[in-house]
Design a protein that fits this description.
Layout: E1 16-17, E2 20-28, E3 32-39, E4 42-52, H1 66-79, E5 86-92, E6 98-104, E7 108-110, H2 111-118, H3 122-140, E8 154-157, E9 163-165, H4 193-201, H5 213-230, E10 232-233, H6 241-250, H7 256-259, H8 265-274, H9 286-296, H10 315-318, H11 324-333, H12 336-339, H13 342-355, E11 359-360, H14 377-394
Antiparallel strand pairs: 1-2, 2-3, 3-4, 4-6, 5-6, 7-8, 8-9, 10-11
Helix pairs in contact: 3-5, 3-9, 4-6, 5-8, 11-14, 13-14
Length: 395
């Protein structure tokens, strides 16, 4: 006899959530699960269903209120033009069970998946990024801050390459206080400097809240643009947390056009302004950023804007390792790290600290890499492992 699912983690293709039949899993996060579904009485038309991981009855005072978080997301979709229509809001399998909501299903891929596949030019990337900023600006003008802008939360629609910003679970609505003690949940390497400063004061231990607001969203857009232009990270995501927060607070990322010579200087300058340490040094609003992008677009007919931003792999490694993931795999399989002199690794680490170049981003991985300017990917990975080894010995 088939098991009747009683928890979102047990849902598989063919399972039913109210009148909705699960077709395939789409994603998972710390607060919910997302599925592609169809309505039983209307097979053939697909939707997206998101279900909370905990029912409200299981909420403890010291924990995140998952249902309240998801209710906030539903409210944003229903009150604002997010590009996704809400078709149903209900609980499963009983009224006191897991909150879920259903929206349009949009065929597409995340921003990074799209650019890895298409290898866009600066002009093409600018078109997509400008639309992302336009959507964020529209929300800001109505008092909504997203607070979790990253590639995974930007869907590039297959049919027309239009981006859709989604996942508003940690967004701030006008007049509403933040749900989270401390700072909104995000990957540590994406924290803006002002959040790092707040965490260093440790007032969050007494229940203090920090809301990054508009400057936080602008910083996140800067991190997103940096990654898209350089295929790298502004700050090494594999650094130990205590070293990472120091880097975020004190080190200035390398200019994208220095890491990737195909990047137009004007886009590089926009990125660095978004990543300024002081919030007041960034653009005053998303609308101001939008104007800067429109001004930059006046140059888009120049030849350098029409070539792909992707840097071709060196010839000697192109045949052996055609994908970034293959470079990572090869580096992990080799014993080359042990053959590198520690002094050389220490010199490279010192250069990394001094110059703050971008850490190459590896497709299909979570960013195991080193911050190094325009190096072949296998060498970048090698230096990453060496640097982390030196850090571990130093600590």
């Amino acid at each position: 006899m088939a098991m009747i699912p009683i928890h979102p983690d047990q849902l598989v293709p063919g399972s039913r959530v109210g009148p909705w039949r699960v077709l395939a899993p789409l994603g998972a996060g710390g607060f919910g699960r997302v599925f592609k579904v169809e309505r039983e009485e209307q097979p053939g038309r697909t939707y997206t269903l998101k279900v909370a991981l905990r029912p409200s009855s299981a909420h403890l005072p010291e924990e995140e209120n998952v249902e309240e978080r998801m209710s906030r997301e539903v409210a944003i979709h229903m009150a604002y033009d997010t590009g996704l229509k809400v078709h149903a809001v209900d609980h499963w399998p009983i009224l006191s069970g897991f909150l879920y909501f259903v929206t349009d299903y949009v065929e597409g891929e995340t921003l990074h998946e799209w650019r890895w596949r298409t290898e866009p030019s600066a002009a093409r990337l600018l078109t997509v990024f400008t639309e992302v900023v336009r959507q964020v600006s529209a929300l800001h003008q109505r008092g909504v801050c997203h607070r979790d802008l990253k590639s995974d939360n930007i869907l590039i629609r297959t049919e027309d390459e239009k981006p859709l910003v989604f996942d508003y679970g940690v967004a701030r609505l006008p007049g509403m206080t933040t749900l989270t003690v401390g700072v909104p949940p995000t990957s540590p390497y994406l924290l803006p400097p002002e959040c790092v400063t707040f965490l260093g004061k440790e007032t969050w231990k007494q229940g203090a809240h920090f809301d990054p607001g508009v400057p936080g969203d602008l910083y996140a857009l800067g991190m997103l643009l940096f990654e898209a232009l350089t295929d790298g990270y502004a700050f090494h995501p594999k650094l130990p947390y205590d070293l990472l927060v120091v880097a975020i607070a004190t080190r200035v990322p390398a200019a994208p056009h220095m890491l990737n010579p195909k990047v137009p200087r004007v886009l590089s300058d926009i990125t660095l302004r978004l990543l300024e340490k002081r919030p007041e040094a960034r653009y005053p609003s998303a609308e101001a950023l939008l104007q800067a992008l429109w001004d930059a677009a006046k140059e888009r007919k120049q030849p350098e804007w029409q070539t792909s931003l992707a840097l071709p792999p060196p010839e000697e490694e192109a045949l052996e390792s055609p994908t970034p993931a293959a470079h990572l795999h090869a580096a992990e399989e080799s014993s080359a790290v042990e053959g590198v002199e520690r002094a050389a690794a220490a010199d490279e680490l010192a250069q990394v600290k001094a110059e703050t170049p971008g850490a190459p981003m590896l497709e299909g991985t979570d960013g195991v890499s080193v911050e190094a300017p325009v190096l072949p990917r296998w060498r970048s990975v090698l230096w990453s492992l060496c640097s982390l080894l030196v850090l571990s010995l130093a600590l």
